[in-house]
Structure of asparagine synthase (glutamine-hydrolyzing):
Amino acid sequence: MCGIAGIAGRQKEGWVARMYESMRHRGPDDTGEFHHPSSQLALGMSRLSVIDVKGGHQPMGNLDETLWIVFNGEIYNAGEIRKRLMSKGFEFRTSHSDTEVLLHAYADQGPQMLKELNGMFAFVIFDKRKNALFGARDRIGIKPFYYLEQPERFIFASELKAILTLPCVEREIDTESLYHYFTLLYVPGESSIIQKVKRLLPGHFFTYDLEEKQFQTQSYWSLDFKNQTQWTAEEWSGRIRDKLTQAVKRRLISDVPVGFSLSGGIDSSGLVGLAAEVSTGPVKTYSLGFKGEREEVWNELPLAKVVAERWSTEHHELTLSSDELLEDLVQMVYALDEPYGGGLPSWYVFRFMSKTVKVGISGTGGDELFGNYGKFRRFEQSCLAPFMKSPLQSVGLLSGLRAPVLSMLDLLRENRFRQRLKKKAEEWLDFGYGALSRYYVTPLYYATEEMKQRSIFQDKGVAGFNTRQALQTIFDQNDSPSFRNQIAALDFKTQLADEFLLMTDRLSMAHSLEARVPYLDHEFVELVMSIPPHQRTQSTNLKYLLKKSLAHVLPTEICGAHKRGFVIPIGLWLRTRLKPLAERLTNPERLGRQNIFQPAFYQQFVKPHLEGKADYTWQIWSMVMFQLWHMIYIENQAVGYPTFSVKELSG
């Protein structure tokens, strides 16, 4: 695992070093640079040594030095690819470096190499013969990749903060990204929070012509629901078990110690059980617990201990009090690169694990594969759902009927019956285009379009933005007749990649811990998504098929337990321990100076919440987290971890 960086074009001495030095948390074991003056190219990296500790130094060149690479990630089938390449005559200098495998795979197949890779990765190869760069990001988006095109240069890095160290980069906020953030609590899609700095999308590669300064990107993989197979639940459970076991075995490949984050839920418990079956020694497990009010409701330590005892793991527990949960908030905001208002306790378990292992295995992705938290239920429970073969079918017909039907209802006498009838008619008539908004965005997310336009943002600059439409566009790209498939595809392209995987990467690498996610092995993902949706999950038992597949390794207590998880009581804390911070960061004068938000935000949201007259938890929290980010990255122009704390900011 590494932090990679590069500049192609006009630059000053030391710029690339400045970039990778800002990511030493990603790679504290080694650093390296490569320069090609005639192409004005500089590549750099900071390395966390996991595979081929002695031989994997980067940047790495091939034998004739016509290809050079910087690579962040792991290729789990590198050994198999290596054997194939050796049979074709390729010579290797290292004993088992997956970085060198990538170099030779590119020499052998060019961009077609990507189809063969099983892993998590973001890499860039300099091809001297073509005087061009070739880069790619893994299918699911486990590893990050940021880039910036300027007339005189092309810049890339594993983290946004590395790009922001350069004096040629202006720290201007991308208002549309910020607008979406206030609904989602994360920044979605290709654009980052900084204007002109982009993310390479998951499952995409790019080429950059160093002579012509032309950048092109192309998709090489996406979720596909077309090849769904009819097997019995018993047959599917066997295939799931075999493929997931293979994914776990691949992620145990390491030259350094590996541990498992164990929450006591089905996903992480299943991984530990599968690992215990195939490991030669005891599995290391790490669990995070909390003490405080209503501890019995959300504390998973007892369940985690059941799993640890079942498999005789080398088990480690860390218990935090509520007072400790916000001590590192400023450091978390810096580590995350972009504004984020979601769950943060992973910071503590990753920090805990990093004291004794360099690789941590997580259950991320299990929920997205099996049921998506039941987000599809509202669609299927709609009174119109049984009459539509596809969520988008008949949209034109319904939209055409909307105006005349509602006009006729307006002719009825004004009473409660007419109100109920009109509301039901609107639900039917809005089902096509409005289904996503009605059953997904509004109930699941945090600030509506109306709220943002009316009460959060200043009028100028946001009139054309629409988060619902942005999500609708992605939703419409999948033509499956199943709501379950469409929601899964939407979540894979948005929340999974842009929230959960971004958070997992930044919060683990902040502690120099490589996080691996077996459920997101692309072969396993493809298998699960080939299961007919009503077999893959049940409305009342979302993970029944996964439970069936893992029954031999799951204790009965785990199978029958309700899903838990610690949720920080933000609403209460904003009225108590976080009140001084909220008041300072949402002060009308401060908001007015930024020229982005309405100064009345304080009167509209903060004051009523603090007085207990309304609940605006997430509107305030999203503003507080953005303001912390703004203070660090815009006001203080941070290029390293901040020295101030939440306690100091709160006075």
Remarks:
- The longest strand covers residues 67-75.
